[in-house]
Specification:
about 20% strand; about 25% helix
Length: about 70
């Protein structure tokens, strides 16, 4: 399982798939949907989380200092 503030770009989607991640949760759309499409096509569950991402995992911090932007 992976969670991120942004949906993955294609390059990150390939890395996520190669790493064997089975589910990806994100809060905001990245400028391209290619990574999400790649993951879905390859059987990875991808879900946009509409609520506060901190509610998914208490150790997550939705702050600029810990922001996970795509490459």
């Amino acid at each position: 399982v992976s969670q991120s503030r942004y949906s993955p770009c294609l390059n990150c989607g390939i890395k996520i798939f190669t790493a064997g991640v089975s589910s990806v949760f994100y809060k905001e759309d990245y400028r391209s949907n290619e990574g999400v499409e790649f993951l879905l096509k390859n059987g990875v569950k991808v879900e946009k989380f509409e609520e506060n991402i901190n509610d998914v995992h208490p150790s997550s911090r939705d702050s600029p200092n810990n922001e996970q932007k795509c490459c």
